[in-house]
Write a structure and sequence with these properties.
about 200 residues, alpha+beta, Glutaredoxin, 2 domains, 6-stranded mixed sheet, two-stranded antiparallel ribbon, 10 strands, Thioredoxin_domain
Length: about 200
């Protein structure tokens, strides 16, 4: 074997080893979430809705905090109270880091969800939770922006609401990061939020 051929083979072996180390390092940096990673999505960009004091709120004012958004309605029999109770449990599981998490509940039933009712409902789960509502048209616009489905369903002389159940998590720069599945528990939510905190700290 010639000296030149031996050098070429050694160089090739060296490059392959460097590539293998690089791939290993990349794998170590990959974060595996329980939730759906939608980083860079061209939706969930913002909302402009009123809180229980009539003040218009936007996503930008929560920069510096992680924001968890869920859509629902106060007369929801199971999904919405489960989602908000889970969010409260997540804050507890995060300990001191839970102070960095802002939970926002957006009404899809502004016809019945008054400002006072939204305040009482959200604060029943945690005093820091914020309930937002808008007109029927504003509700439609923000639901479309977040790709949220909702519809009235007649129940005798009244109605209930059918709606999608994902929660949305934003990072401290106000960028959408995760779509969190309703079937996951508080431990899985907290784990994903902790991973995102580590990733963005």
């Amino acid at each position: 074997m010639t000296h030149t051929l031996l050098q070429a083979q050694n160089r090739r072996a060296f490059l392959l080893s460097v590539l293998a180390l690089s791939l290993t390092a990349c794998k170590k940096n990959v974060v595996s979430f329980n939730s759906i990673d939608i980083t860079g999505a061209d939706y969930c960009r913002d909302f402009k809705l009123s809180d229980s004091d009539g003040k218009q709120r936007q996503l930008a004012e929560f920069k510096g905090r992680y924001v968890l958004v869920f859509f629902g309605f106060t007369q929801c029999p199971d999904i919405c109270p489960t989602a908000l109770a889970r969010a409260a449990a997540v804050k507890q599981k995060l300990g001191k880091d839970g102070e960095q998490l802002q939970v926002i509940f957006i009404s899809i039933d502004p016809e019945r969800d008054s400002a006072d009712l939204m305040r009482a409902y959200t604060q029943n789960f945690d005093p820091s939770f914020i309930g937002l509502r808008g007109t029927a048209e504003q509700t439609k616009q923000v639901a479309e922006e977040f790709k949220v489905f909702y519809a009235k369903v007649a129940t005798g002389s009244s109605y209930t609401m059918d709606h999608s159940t994902l929660s949305y998590l934003f990072d401290t720069k106000g960028k959408i990061r995760l779509a969190m599945r309703h079937e996951h528990n508080a431990g899985q939510f907290a784990s994903d939020i902790r991973q995102l905190m580590k990733q963005t700290s």
